[in-house]
Amino acid sequence: MKKIIFPLLVASLSSAALANDYLVDQKDKAFSKKSLKIKVGDTVEFRNSDPFFHNVFSLSDVKSFDLGSYAQGSSKKVVFDKPGKVEVECSIHPQMQMVIEVEK
Ligand SMILES: [Cu+2]
After folding, report:
1. Does the predicted model carry a pTM greater than 0.85?
2. Cα 36 to middle of ligand 1, angstroms
3. Which CATH class name applies to 20-103?
4. Cα(86) to centroid of ligand 1, in Å?
5. Neighbour-count burial of 55, counting CB atoms closer than 10 A to its CB (0-12 exposed, 13-18 middle, 19+ buried)
6. Less packed terminus of the chain by CB within 10 Å, N or C?
């Protein structure tokens, strides 16, 4: 069994080591970054530091998602698996907008 499991473990560890994690905070009804450049395979964690709900979403072709509304102290993660531009918004606060550029 060990001979089969070991190479799989090494492969998953090495691909995880190449990908980066980024944190985007939500505070005072704003994203902590207006724009962010990441690479394919990277993860962005959207944290809510406001004492009210946010609902982060994107309708972009590159990555569309809807994280639902979540409270202060919570965070949700999104993995970006395709290159391109992703416009990120909050459905509760339309003035909250940011752009994530996913590079190959
Ligand atoms: Cu919001």
Report:
1. no
2. 18
3. mainly beta
4. 17
5. middle
6. N
CA of 49 to the centre of ligand 1 (A): 11
Q: Ligand 1 centre from 24 Cα, in Å?
A: 13
Q: What is the pLDDT of residues 44-83, one digit of tens each?
A: 999 999 999 999 999 999 999 999 999 999 999 999 999 9
| Residue pair 63/78 in contact by the 8 Å Cβ criterion | yes
Q: For the segment 25-49, what is each residue's pLDDT rounded down to a tens digit?
A: 999 999 999 999 999 999 999 999 9
For the chain, the domains span 20-103
Contact 47, 70 (CB under 8 A): no
